[in-house]
Amino acid sequence: MKEDQSSPSSRAKSITLQLLEKLLSADDAQDVGVRLWDGTLWPDDQPRRGPTFSQRYVFPDGELTPINVSLRAAEEAGFEVRDVESLREHYALTLRHWVRRLEEYHQQALEFVSEPTYRVWRLFMSASAYGFSTGSINVYQSLLVKQKEDGGSNLPLTRADWYG
Predict the structure, then answer these.
(1) Which residues 6+ apart lie within 8 Å of 120 measured at CB?
(2) Contact (Cβ atoms closer than 8 angstroms) between residue 79 and residue 24
(3) Cα–Cα distances in Å, from 51 out to 6, 56, 68, 119?
């Protein structure tokens, strides 16, 4: 049965699966077997009313997908999901810092880009910081593993061991 590509969730799943298959099936993934993947994602139940500011002016080919779509795509590409961590609050703080620095160096930035481009990025980062702080968008870091033939992963058993 052919999947309907006309609905937003079907398109998102298709795009995510294609992207993950390309990124996660690289030769080094076969050798190492582990990938740390992060992605900015849109909640599955949040309605969309057309292209966002970001899609229109910043990332015209970008599409935020729900975490469940991304993780399913990783599994369909042959990866086991070993860990998922939300970095939402961290991104809100980081973006606010970037906006402050951009504003502080406004004139220097204009040596590289036009005023309209400066404003687009200032607005985009400010709105994104707001989105992360209110939970309307999120960013997840996922640890994905290709199992060895014997089912092993060669990963430490706990997060403490990963970072130790």
Answers:
(1) 57, 58
(2) yes
(3) 15, 6, 21, 19
Query: Which is higher by pLDDT, 80 or 29?
Result: 80
160, part of any domain: no
Residue-wise pLDDT tens digits, 66-99: 788 888 888 888 888 888 989 999 999 999 999 9
- Residue 156 phi, psi dihedral angles, 5° rounding: -60, 160
The answer to whether residue 98 sits within a structural domain is yes
Could you tell me if 151 and 33 are in contact, meaning their C-beta atoms sit under 8 angstroms apart?
A: no
Q: Which domain holds residue 84?
A: 8-147
Per-residue burial over 107-134, b if 16 or more Cβ lie within 10 Å, else e, is eebeeeeeeeebebbbebbbbbbebbbe
CB 38 within 8 A of CB 70: no
**pLDDT tens by residue, 96-126:** 999 999 999 999 999 999 999 999 999 999 9
Is residue 3 pLDDT above 50, yes or no?
Answer: no
- The larger pLDDT score, comparing residue 100 to residue 163, is at 100
Our CA dihedral for 44, 46, 50, 55, rounded to 10 degrees, sits at -70
C-alpha torsion sign, points 95, 96, 102, 106: positive
Q: How many domains does the chain have?
A: 1
3-state secondary structure of 102: helix
